[in-house]
Design a protein that fits this description.
25% of the residues lie in helices and 13% in strands. The protein is an alpha+beta fold and 217 residues long.
Length: 217
């Protein structure tokens, strides 16, 4: 097995990755598969027998999993109606798999204000948002570069709003804005049990982009 430094060097030269190699935080490799983690905040290695208990037992339905359960995800999201939809989507206890890129894109595409509460969404809107997220993640799961605009990326990712603050909205022409929203980051306990229990949310602000006209409500 090659060293991590050697792997990093090889990946640095691979322009198909579609993301800067300086953001690589973890590389896991077997004889058949190589998994590269970009912008990973936490990495823990635990025995397989403790995986459910210590790492994933508190997570909501996996949006890319074979046992994806839309109704269960909607139930979890709806259980806290006073929460901002932009925060609720990133809470992995509700559903697991949506990151900041897809949050920005899904809310833009569904014309949803990130700060509107879950309970105030029009009937059927929450289902539309989660269904769209599921579709986008599946469309991009095997791509080296992501696209949410219905076109195959050519040399760079293609997004409607993510990373485009200050630019005109491609739908209405208004200038896209950037702000911060609470991600409700989950804290997972250390093996000795000294940190916060799983399922506890702590404030973690993340940059978000939205259109003040298309997503006004």
């Amino acid at each position: 097995m090659r060293s991590r430094a050697e792997a990093r060097t090889r990946l640095s030269a691979d322009v198909s990755i579609g993301q800067g190699s300086h953001t690589i935080r973890a590389i896991l490799r077997t004889e058949d598969v190589e998994a590269v983690g970009f912008d990973v905040k936490d990495v823990r290695l635990v025995p397989t027998r403790l995986e459910d208990e210590q790492l994933v037992g508190y997570l909501g339905p996996d949006i890319l999993g074979p046992d994806w359960d839309l109704e269960r995800a909607l139930e979890r999201l709806g259980a806290q109606p006073d929460r901002a939809i932009g925060t609720a989507l990133m809470d992995q206890r509700n559903l697991a798999g949506i990151g900041n890129v897809y949050r920005v894109e899904v809310l833009f595409m569904s014309r949803t204000n990130p700060w509107v509460t879950v309970g105030s969404l029009p009937e059927g809107k929450l289902r539309e948002i989660v269904t769209l997220a599921h579709k986008l993640l599946h469309l991009n799961k095997d791509r080296s570069m992501r696209s949410t605009v219905g076109q195959t990326p050519q040399g760079r990712p293609l997004f409607w709003a993510y990373g485009k603050d200050g630019q005109p909205c491609r739908r209405c022409g208004a200038v896209l804005r950037r702000g911060e929203i609470d991600d409700a980051l989950l804290t997972v306990p250390a093996p000795d049990g000294t940190t916060t229990a799983p399922g506890t949310a702590v404030q973690h602000l993340r940059k978000i982009v939205w259109c003040p006209r298309c997503q006004s409500e």
